[in-house]
Write a structure and sequence with these properties.
- There is one protein chain.
- The chain is an all-alpha fold.
- It has a single domain (about 20-195, about 200-400), classed as Growth Hormone, Chain: A (Up-down Bundle).
- It has helices at about 20-35, 40-45, 50-80, 80-100, 105-115, 120-130, 135-150, 150-165, 170-190, 200-205, 210, 215-245, 250-255, 260-280, 280-305, 310-315, 315-335, 340-365, 375-400.
- α1 (about 20-35) crosses α8 (about 150-165), α1 packs antiparallel against α9 and α7 (about 135-150) packs antiparallel against α17.
């Protein structure tokens, strides 16, 4: 579907309104973090260890990354619309399963099935690339993820309040209602934006080597994976740090946790305004630098024993801001390497980013324990920021050799 097609809201035969893409991305973000303040109560409800419940984050991320390997090729083969609707339908059913799970094992099965909503995040990016030029796509992805970034700002705080007044299940009822609304909106507003490929699914997978042989694709993917890895590590470790190190209640943690979302919102707003002017690569470099700077400050404060929870969570605004610059630009970059494989690139890049995030989330949780303080998490996030800077620097050098700079 070309960019010249008139867009009409709530018309399933034209490209979607940007608000629909924002909500599609947002439901995935909310599924990841709205229930974070409830982890201790979920552990008590099922009478299991907290570290086991923490795997509901890593397991969800791992399943999301795995699914994106298939979502991209299938969306290129059959179109964006049917894959989005199918994924949302499974998500709604899986959320009900989480609510009525009799055991923690059953809860985990349905929690992993909730990862079907990962297609909403991956394919909303592919839709943006379908209907925009690369530089314009970076700016539009900035606006889409800017809207999405409002979710981490309020979702944990809302989840903490719901937990205190109505119990841990309230967050999942919120997800169920949101899933129903967004399923209807997608059905009513999102017209197909891609011409379905004539290749079979196996033929689509055969296109992976074309991407995997591209050093630029790897550079963009790993820049996104390492920068977002700092945030995923934070998601895995911050509930423990909040409760065990700083003694925060679920509602207090939800409020403190908003700092990363505020930074992410501002970073995406900045990207939406200036990505076309500054350029994708320099935007990614600046974002990785901000993540690194934030974690250096956090480390200095922790070593000096200054600020406590205010210093730890306050510096997360730099991590959020850096990710708001890096992620939309890196996504636009990886999709522009082979434009005819935009859906496949989105799925593969998303798998690398979220799969790495799952590993880092679990690793962060395993590093933390009685007496460690927040130091293992800070060092891990700092390493992620440095790695992101190194990855995009490699892309920029590669492009100079190719005469693209």
């Amino acid at each position: 579907m070309s960019q010249s097609h008139a867009r009409r809201y709530l018309n399933r035969h034209t490209p979607p309104h940007i608000s629909t893409l924002i909500l599609l991305s947002g439901v995935g973000a909310m599924t990841m973090n709205v229930f974070l303040p409830s982890l201790p109560k979920i552990a008590d409800h099922f009478s299991v260890d907290y570290k086991l419940v923490q795997l509901s984050i890593a397991g969800y991320l791992a399943a999301s990354g795995f699914l994106q390997l298939f979502i991209g090729p299938m969306a290129d083969r059959y179109g964006r619309r049917p894959m989005l609707l199918g994924g949302l339908a499974i998500f709604v059913v899986a959320t009900l399963g989480c609510l009525f799970a009799p055991t923690f094992g059953t809860f985990m099965i349905f929690r992993i099935l909730q990862a079907s909503v990962a297609g909403a995040m991956a394919l909303s990016r592919a839709v943006v690339r379908d209907i925009n030029t690369p530089d314009r796509a970076a700016a539009m992805m900035g606006y889409v993820t800017m809207g999405m970034s409002m979710v981490p700002m309020f979702a944990p705080a809302l989840g903490g309040a719901l937990d205190e007044y109505f119990g841990w299940q309230a967050s999942f009822w919120l997800l169920f209602a949101s899933g129903l609304v967004i399923f209807w909106l997608t059905w009513a507003d999102l017209g197909e934006t891609a011409t379905p490929s004539e290749l079979s699914i196996l033929g689509q997978f055969a296109e992976y080597p074309e991407l995997l042989k591209s050093l630029r694709f790897w550079g963009y993917s790993m820049a996104a994976a390492t920068s977002s890895g700092a945030f995923f590590a934070y998601i895995g470790g911050s509930p423990f740090v909040a409760t065990s190190v700083f003694g925060l209640s679920p509602a207090e943690f939800g409020i403190f946790n908003a700092t990363a979302g505020i930074g992410y919102f501002i970073g995406n707003w900045f990207t939406g305004l200036y990505a076309a002017r500054i350029g994708m690569n320099r935007m990614i470099l600046m974002g990785g630098t901000f993540v690194t700077l934030g974690m250096v400050l956090s480390l200095v404060f922790a070593l000096a024993g200054i600020g406590g929870a205010y210093a730890f969570f306050g510096t997360m605004i730099f991590v959020g801001f850096g990710n708001g610059m890096t992620i939309p630009s890196a996504n636009a970059g990886m999709l522009s390497v082979r434009p005819h494989l935009a859906g496949t690139a989105s799925g593969l890049g998303g798998a690398l980013m979220i799969g790495g995030g799952a590993a880092l989330s679990a690793f962060a949780g395993s590093l933390l324990g009685e007496g460690t303080g927040a130091f293992p998490l800070i060092w891990l996030m700092l390493a992620c920021g440095v790695a992101s800077v190194l990855c995009i620097t490699g892309v920029m050098r590669r492009e100079r050799r190719m005469g693209m700079a």
